[in-house]
Amino acid sequence: MSAPPPAPPARKTSALQGRLAKLGIAREADLLLHLPLRYEDETRLVPIAELKPGAPVQVAGVVEHAEVTFRPRRQLVVRLRDDTGVLTLRYLNFYPSVVKQLETGARIRAFGEVRGGFWGEEMVHPRTQTLAEGSELPAALTPVYPTTAGLAQSALRKLISRALERCDLADHLPDDWRKALRLPGWERSLRHLHQPPPDASLSALDERNHPAWRRIKFDELLAQQISLRRAYAERRQHRAPSLLPSGKLAQGLLAALPFALTGAQRRAVNEIAQDLAQPHPMQRLLQGDVGSGKTIVAALAMLQAAEHGYQAALMAPTEILAEQHYRKLAGWLAPLGLQVAWLSGSQKKREREANRALLASGEALLAVGTHALIEDDVLLTRLGIAVVDEQHRFGVRQRLALREKVDGALPHMLMMSATPIPRTLAMSYMADLDVSVLDELPPGRTPIMTRLVSDARRDEVIARVRDACLEGRQAYWVCPLIEESESLQLQTAQDTFERLTAELPELKVGLVHGRLKPAEKAAVMEAFLRNEVQLLVATTVIEVGVDVPNASLMVIEHAERFGLAQLHQLRGRVGRGAAASSCVLIYAQPLSQNGRERLKAIYETTDGFEIARRDLQLRGPGEFIGARQSGAQLLRYADPDADIDLVEKAQELAARMLAEHPGTAERLLERWFGGRAELLKA
Ligand code: ADP
Ligand code: MG
């Protein structure tokens, strides 16, 4: 049989291209921005006698003995000797070529981490190199790149070196700006990071506070700011109905409310009212902690559209939340003689038709719903404002769909977020939005007491639930989260419900979870709202927005499994009425480090912005940005929190660069995002 023919070169190239694509490298120039994860110091040798477990080091010596043993499993064990001692090298997986390379008598260098093994100190799977006569140590640190299967470090290094010789390394930062920022040149920075000089400090490079790293991060932030700014400017070029505030309806609503707006609410209402009067679309994010009163702010904005005969739509991510918004709005607005249409995916055909007719005839200008609102047959042909609650739960496309409803002009957009976004994150990722912040809770709220209770004391918690409910208050019981399996999650909810029903015969217990039919779900929520159900067993479907002021006790089982933002949201379901509220977090041992941190944070503070800050530290920015940037990439090198000084500078200089050097701004975007800048616009 003849050997298979070698693969044609074209195939080989495309295999390489495929692997590079996995790393986000599409063009040769992208290789330059593929920066090392870390560095290894192969410039020095450590005598075997001085090895300490821990950091990776390099040793050199002669193989004294090498043997493939089979106990406890097949492995290659090598004894390496230098002038000072002997070290064991151990390979649990190895190719025959390794056995050959490490034959007795071979002179080699080995790089790896030393650890204390059963038989003394050893290196497991060190990287080795055979030493030729007179071979020298590398003069500089060795970069280690993020890579993917089938692409060796050495190959990647070669490709990058070549890119450094062939690609455009022009500095896009005007010289005087760069000097004022005290940042090194672009080319110098890239070369320093890819091919560090012999005297480069390993710690500065690894910790990424070296000036070369700061230069890269700055350019990345600048490119981000420029692209967001451009997106902002482009959207402002569209027309939108100019809705001057006349205030008649709004005044009617305010007069009828049982409360006065907080100062923060008044500020937000004014900011929004001014935006709506402009002839171009508002793009505003309303941020406020749970319970800060965003709904009324949204309602007032919607009325401003209605006053001019325009439609206003409020879209929420879940049926429960949408339904609740509907009830609240309808309750506020019916006395003013305004109808609200209600559209949800689960509605009966008749009900849906009736609501569509309300919109079609213009009898109702206001609509509330789930994403059923953006299904193409809905009649939002005169949409003046779209309000999106929990904006991060919707994809870019869904939010755009709401915008596309009107031909000619775009509606104004108000996005609301119940999960506060740390300032540093908002400054970078949300720079294309105007932001209003509700930084004040309505008065009269009693702070929520949070308690951590080990699951060994579950009975005490049950007694507390009984006492609270018998005193006329109500409680939530949130079931353990089982992320891996929805059916297991449902089963757990069902079991919890049955157990609590048996354990608390004097109470009426209800159950709500994501798989209930919408009508059933609505019925349970309704019963809870009317205090016909005292204890509501629930999955996280109640996480956002649910508002039952008489509920003052929240119990969360296996709290250690929940994310910080989730715990904060859940806790925010209580503390909405006058009664003193508490939140009991039942946890099970053993706690992971991260789980412990989360419980500690939620125990220590109820300030949503502080919780968001800690959450950011624990989870990184990806989760916060969510669907907002789906497709577009997160920052790769800069960290808006740690590099806040650079974010501020980038914000300032982005505006200047667009004004003074638009061509350079373009080239900078091209360098960082290639063809992908489009994605940042949504
Ligand atoms: P969130 O910001 O979490 O969406 P909501 O809009 O649901 O908050 O408001 C929480 C509760 O506070 C609701 O019952 C709402 O009617 C009430 N509320 C809103 N604003 C005020 C205020 N200024 N004074 C008193 N209660 C208010
Ligand atoms: Mg809300």
From TrEMBL:
EC numbers, comma separated: 5.6.2.4
Residue ranges occupied by any Helicase ATP-binding domain in the UniProt entry: 275-438
Catalyzed reaction equations: Couples ATP hydrolysis with the unwinding of duplex DNA by translocating in the 3'-5' direction; ATP + H2O = ADP + phosphate + H(+)
Primary enzyme class: isomerase
GO-annotated molecular function: helicase activity
Location of the Helicase C-terminal domain: 471-622
Keywords: ATP-binding, DNA damage, DNA recombination, DNA repair, DNA-binding, Helicase, Hydrolase, Isomerase, Nucleotide-binding
Gene3D superfamilies to which the protein is assigned, alphabetical: Nucleic acid-binding proteins, P-loop containing nucleotide triphosphate hydrolases
Source taxon at top rank: Bacteria
Function recorded in the entry: Plays a critical role in recombination and DNA repair. Helps process Holliday junction intermediates to mature products by catalyzing branch migration. Has replication fork regression activity, unwinds stalled or blocked replication forks to make a HJ that can be resolved. Has a DNA unwinding activity characteristic of a DNA helicase with 3'-5' polarity.
PANTHER family: ATP-DEPENDENT DNA HELICASE HOMOLOG RECG, CHLOROPLASTIC
NCBIfam families: PRK10917.1-1, PRK10917.1-3, PRK10917.1-4, PRK10917.2-2, recG
Family, per entry: Belongs to the helicase family. RecG subfamily.
Record-given protein name: ATP-dependent DNA helicase RecG
Species annotation: Viridibacterium curvum
